[in-house]
Design brief:
The chain is an alpha+beta fold. It has five helices and six strands; from the N terminus they run αααβββαβββα. The chain has helices at 2-11, 18-36, 39-42, 98-109, 161-167, and strands at 48-55, 60-69, 79-85, 116-122, 137-142, 155-159. Strands 1-2-3-4-5-6 form a six-stranded mixed sheet. It is globular, with a radius of gyration of 23 Å. The termini are far apart.
């Protein structure tokens, strides 16, 4: 028995209260369990999943934003941002203000908008009273930096849901 007491006290000194020792053991247990969880399970969620608002000329606008790490095979894009056009948006659309939204989201999340794959998403959630359906439109928007380091005009391309899953490394979560 003295050997067990010495080993235990080397790990958690007996001078600690029972509650402190219990908390320390719980922390060690949680860290051990966390180490056993596969890393890809921890990365299955978007980095951010929130409503993003901005002020247009006349109204406040809002979009549902999901931020993902960039596609692993694209060294030019650090992140993918999905912006869902919401029926509740009473201001300018995301697409109308995409340059401004990209700059604002970039500032809010510490990203260069030119290194982001932007995807604007329309679906049943975009229209008041619409019924659920598989009909959706996905537009990929990219920017570059000009020689004066300003954001270029956007480049647009219609993409498929498969393209979106590739851009998010299969992490995309449909509404």
């Amino acid at each position: 028995m003295p050997h067990q007491t010495a080993a235990r006290s080397a790990f958690l000194p007996l001078s600690l209260s029972f509650a402190a020792r219990r908390s320390a053991l719980l922390l060690v247990l949680l860290l051990t369990i966390g180490a056993l969880v596969p890393l890809n399970m921890l990365q299955a969620q978007p980095v951010a999943d929130t409503t993003f608002t901005w002020r247009g000329y006349t109204h406040e606008s809002r979009t549902h934003l999901q931020l993902y790490p960039g596609p692993p095979d694209d060294e030019n894009r650090d992140h993918t941002v999905v912006l869902r056009e919401l029926a509740a948006n009473t201001g300018p659309t995301v697409l109308d203000d995409i340059e401004y939204v990209a700059e604002q989201v970039g500032r809010a999340f510490g990203m260069d908008p030119a290194r982001v794959a932007w995807v604007v998403h329309w679906g049943a959630f975009s229209y008041e009273g619409a019924t659920d359906s598989d009909k959706e439109v996905l537009v990929r928007v990219t920017f570059r930096r000009t020689s004066t380091e300003r954001l270029s005009a956007p480049y647009w391309r219609i993409i498929t849901p498969t393209d979106l899953r590739e851009l998010t490394d299969s992490r995309y979560q449909a509404p």
